[in-house]
């Protein structure tokens, strides 16, 4: 089939849904590609580059729509654009079906198949198609760059001949994809970074990136994560504690980046007007939730304002578009992976499998019917956290009784093993020659001692234990080689087995040692 990319008509949108590289990958799936002339110019991709990649460059949108079976876009179509699409075509783009029910009904009436990239379920298998995460990653990075552009000092602290420069203090509210990208960028620039999120499981991620997790003294009765990997709405009590903590931090912070969004809801107000008034002159707030009303009370969408006390508030809604080349590359890769799932046989024929969780979740309209909302995926994005059982605190009497019981059980096992082993040795002594028994007794004692030593070693230490037993294994092999020429068939078999098993231990020990040493070497 032919995949066609249109020029974005939304004002200020610089991204494009197809790049020369993604078109080359689509060709491997059996598809051909076409693009509207000039569609990639704002993202740095010329028509000549597309033509060199085998993409047919057509003069206008009408020509692309007439030639293509599948239309790919970044922004969702408006009513006029939707009216120009042909019956039976497939449209892949951001669509936001919950916010555009009339547009969705119109698409269904035209028998269009709508694949909404904003509806890709957040499960492991669909990460390669998660365009929301791709764009959020860019938005988080760009938010720090915009903050630095409007901040009057260095991010990193410096001691120079001209004086000492303190490091900037940055607060990231919300540690989703955008928040983590902002944390990574701020830390790499040398700032002191604090981050907050209602989901307790992200604390480790935040701290592993070099930031400080902002803890609240609050007994949370439920997990802060909702189905799909997003944050759930907080209780009023939790919100009050949260705002109180932010008021405590506001006078110290130089840069605040807010990223908190809940699907299908207006952005929660987390940075109030009084907090802005408490901030130092020259401070910067970047509100990544500006498109949904903003996390800050004073945010004006698509504008940068400066308050009376000198705080700059940035409410841009087009952060990914401000890095159009990178954003187009990532988004077109998401589109390509979606088309890869839609073309399972790589024969250029799209098979729209509505039994597939990812395809079904992203499909908002199909075969003349509205298929939004989709059923929940069979695999949950985040498993429900099971409450951990607290270990019962034993009294001194109970602890003593437990130790006595364990000692008695261990004694019974050891006495039993000795009795059984002694009986077997006496039985073997009735039939085996004296020369064999002298070696056999040493062997049995060695096995018993080795069993007692190894049995209580933790399983996690068995692998490094192999690395330090090569000397013992070498002794075993030497003894076995001395006995392998014996005239007794039984001795030969035992010696051969000893050589085989000790050889495995030696080779495995060397491999483990090499890997352990490699952990401490620079690659």
In words, what does this structure look like?
A hairpin with a 5-residue loop joins β14 (304-306) and β15 (312-314). The model has no long low-confidence stretch (mean pLDDT 88). The chain has an 8-stranded mixed sheet, sandwiched between helices. It has a 7-stranded mixed sheet with strand order 11-10-9-12-13-15-14. It has a two-stranded antiparallel ribbon with strand order 7-8. It has 523 residues and is an alpha/beta fold. It has helices spanning 20-28, 47-52, 61-67, 79-84, 101-109, 131-150, 177-188, 203-208, 236-249, 273-278, 324-342, 357-362, 396-431, 434-455, 462-467, 470-483, 489-518, and strands spanning 2-5, 32-36, 56-58, 70-72, 90-93, 113-116, 158-160, 163-165, 169-173, 192-196, 212-213, 255-258, 284-287, 304-306, 312-314, 363-366, 369-370. α6 (131-150) runs parallel beside α7 and α6 (131-150) runs antiparallel to α11 (324-342). The radius of gyration is 33 Å and the shape is extended. The chain is built from 17 helices and 17 strands.
Question: What is shown here, in short?
Answer:
It contains 17 helices and 17 strands. The protein is of the alpha/beta class.
Features of this protein?
17 strands; eight-stranded mixed beta sheet; seven-stranded mixed beta sheet; 44% helix; alpha/beta; 523 residues; 12% strand
Largest sheet: number of strands, sense, barrel closure: 8 strands, mixed
Poorly predicted regions: none
- What is the number of strand segments? 17
Termini Cα gap: 45 Å
Approximately what portion of the residues adopt beta-strand conformation? Answer: 5-15%
SS-based structural class?
alpha/beta
Helices, by number, come to: 17
Strand neighbour order, sheet with most strands: 3-2-1-4-5-6-16-17
Computed CA radius of gyration, to the nearest angstrom: 33 Å
Fraction of residues in helix: 40-55%
Query: How confident overall, as mean pLDDT?
Result: 88
- Principal-axes shape call: extended
